[in-house]
Amino acid sequence: METKLKRSRQRESILSFLMTRQDHPTADIIYEHVRKEIPNISLGTVYRNLALLTERGEIIKLTLDGICDRYDATTTPHFHFQCSCCKGVSDMPIPDDFTNTLNTLNNTFHGIIEGCTSYFYGICPDCKQKNQDSIHSQNLAEKNH
Amino acid sequence: METKLKRSRQRESILSFLMTRQDHPTADIIYEHVRKEIPNISLGTVYRNLALLTERGEIIKLTLDGICDRYDATTTPHFHFQCSCCKGVSDMPIPDDFTNTLNTLNNTFHGIIEGCTSYFYGICPDCKQKNQDSIHSQNLAEKNH
DNA sequence: TATTATAATAGTAATGATTACTGTAATTGA
DNA sequence: TCAATTACAGTAATCATTACTATTATAATA
Hints:
The structure is a homodimer.
Chain A (H helix, E strand, L loop, with lengths): L8 H12 L6 H11 L5 H13 L4 E3 L7 E3 L6 E5 L5 E4 L5 H11 L3 E12 L1 H19 L2
Parallel strand pairs in A: 3-5
Antiparallel strand pairs in A: 1-2, 3-4
Helix pairs in contact in A: 1-2, 1-3, 2-3
The structure holds a DNA duplex (30 and 30 nucleotides).
């Protein structure tokens, strides 16, 4: 059913941009960047190619909060983390013992588990640090009131 | 910042309907059902109350495929499974050893992990059974060709 | 019970990410 | 070079969700 792909400068530019990024940009962000190289590229082209690349398994589409999808050129299995403070998304390695969880599920579930999407949320290292800094300076201010 | 809640027949009806269901219905399905009881309820009211209940932690909003959100009145932690065949969503208990995975992540991650959303996909028990049945009858047909 | 403050509603309009459509252009294979 | 077909730009349409507004329901108080 899969039709033969023809090369296109647009698709190559989208994919190579995505491969430089670790922050899982949205279609809109990808569009804004690729536009610098191909000024008259259309947003529809960006979406179509992202769908195409996802379909072929060359990239992964992330649906985290349902606001808008994000795209990831790293296709090896990994978890994701979204910061509730800055909304940034980053990768998390999958701990080895997660395979135990998968085994348990496979043994108890009577269907077929093909894959898993896990994402964690909370405060990212950066925002945690900023938060501590501001509490620290607040305490200093109180001391010297 | 949380304002005081006033009772409303609409919200009570939405919540009690949701509590009878294990299949995590969408806002639209909830709307269709609650309408039988309160014919002139508006879809906006359904959305607003679902958001309100989610905010207060009385229900959980599930964003699985990004097409449309689903709602779940079971608030104790559990995984979800979506069948790629029938698109149905069901609950999965969290295996005990998943706490090991969480511990590993907490020890290696330099931010704060507040929660986790995991969903698995594949073929549900029902669709798997139907599939086997059809292969079985296909084999029979080939034998008796 | 009557009054008052305010949360909630119905109905409708607006939003915004994504998809579909259409005529034209680029790519590939012969 | 030609033919077949994939991809494109530009634009319109879709559709789940949210925002808005005038009115109604709820609950606390007098």
